[in-house]
Amino acid sequence: MSTTRETRIPVSRWRNLGIIAHVDAGKTTLTERLLYKTGTIHRTGEVHDGATTTDHMELERERGITIGAAAVRANWTPDGGQPHRLTLIDTPGHIDFAIEVERSLRVLDGAVTVFSGVAGVQPQSETVWHQARRHGVPLMAFVNKMDRPGADFDAIVAQMRDKLGANPWVVARPIVEDEHMTGLTDLVGERTWRFDDAGNATVRAWNDAEREAFAEARAELVAAVTDRDEALAELWLADTRIDAVALAAALRRGTLAGLGSPVLPGSAFRNVGIEPLLDAMVAYLPSPLDRPAVVAHTDDGDTTVAPDADAPLAALVFKVVNQAHGPLAFVRLYAGRLHVGDAVWRSGTDRVQRVGRLAVVRAEDTEAVDEAEAGDIVAIAGWKDVATGETLSDAHRHVRLEAIQAQPAVLSWRLSPERSADLLKLGNGLARLAQEDPSFRVGTDPDTGETLVWGMGELHLEVMVERLRREWGVQVRTGSPRVAYQETPAAASGAVEGKLAKQTGGSGQYARVVLSVTPNGTDANTFEDRTTGGVIPKPFQAAVEKGALSALLEGPRGYPVVGASVVVLDGQAHAVDSNETAFHRAAQIAVKSALEATGTVLLEPVMRVSVSAPGSAVGDVLGDLQRRGGQIVNLVDRQERTEIEADVPLAQLDGYSTALRSLSQGRASATVAFHAYRPALQEPSRRSA
What we know:
The structure is a single chain. By secondary structure, this protein is α+β, with helices and mostly antiparallel strands. The strands form nine sheets. It has an eight-stranded antiparallel sheet. A hairpin with a 2-residue loop joins strand 9 and strand 10 (180-186). Helix 11 (423-436) packs across helix 12 (458-472) and helix 13 (538-551) packs parallel to helix 14. The radius of gyration is 28 Å and the shape is globular.
């Protein structure tokens, strides 16, 4: 049980939910209205004024975009129902901050996808939808901005089917009068909601005319859900009237199973449709108890962790934020309980550490709590070396949960402080930013010794540089962008020997490793030891693996090697002169020799460029994309504008935003997202990784 605002709410009535969407679909505005309607805040702020609760960073308020996922907690009691506890996470919509969506979906139980009623299903809408599906997160949809001219609810529902492969269940339809949405009709509860100019709602049951007018729409909903639910199908086949209770229960079962997604219309800015959305969130989306057990790794093999507060502790650190008073580690508890003062095992440090302070977070504010239990999302304060993806578990029963995967960084800048005295501050600032964001990494150019920062795109790196200036007081100079090339083996190498033999009296170095390197067609490297008879003694086998994989960090062309399968075939040790260092080096020599023998294929990051352009500029935009080596993958004419999707090598996109503005007189817009690594069309003019 959990105490929130003097109300004890059981875990079955908790909802850990994300708000996800394409940039500018209205996620943050919707979150602000949800908080207002639940009584969590007493006035609403606007994104354009820089006054929203969840966009609390100064940089977010200035740019009008969400950069970091922000968690807030609220309570909601449906009319005639019981109180529910909501933990909402407002996530970024820009592709450069996709890691925030990824790690939020990793720990959330359900999500509300927001679509613009005018723009519809946009490129990042597809990305976040499929991210959620990959994590098995049940989804519902809110079609926002239905107050805007050109908004088309039915068209958005059709796009959900066509573009997302979704199964949308329309549970409410908009009521539009004089081209403005003034209310909605609840097809499940057979009720009508009306909203005045201030967004206040009045609800009443359908009258006879409304029942007749919406009979077909409700029948379509019932038929769609019946196709996926046996219990409802039995009622329907028995010609039994399907009431609100039976239909809502079937909708919940289907949503939790991922068979369909309830869809509602509204206008967050006008406060229209917020209460019906809150009702639907608690009615159809899961509690922590509704989610399947997660897989954890132990020294004895894999096990499952069920959402049980009485089980041993299993929790995941999914986000780290450095605030003025120190770091906060956001933690999702999957099993067990966590108390202030508990000593817990941390997978990242392989040691036991005490919990000094626990807190519930509301954006930038925290409220201290004494304990948390399975299903909770809380923050631990004060752990300076904590990292995203760490597992916390019982000190006497170590488990490791699946880590959070970040997409590979594709673009880098050179950084140097304007004042040499700021070098230490620059290093500290970069270390903290890399701690917070797994998709941002810091390195050094081996040729020049310059500091390199790697990120997901120009906006990502711009934000990081600006944060260095504001939060760490470091003015930096940036160098030309560099592209993250990779290599992959061109062919199978066959057996290749790596041998180290330094035996000149006294303690020597001896190791012999025979292995093969083969392309595996993936973006990961694998290692397998097929030796028999102890030709490589067991104490040295780990050194062979580490040596082989370390040799893949830089291939013959100077870039990281991916897609390589290393198989150890034979080896030889010396009774006196062999040691871990010798076998580590011999494995490195063998892998380097194999890659030199086969050669490698250079891979470059290819970006999916999505352009929305006026009809008059389409020809110029297409020509420019093709000159940059782009392949057009989709082109859709939407009356006044045309949507273009193309795959373009990142190396050819330098200055693209400026060129697009020039080609379209500032009327076209574009989003650029990492798509895949593909063989490079041409050799880079200089080393770029």
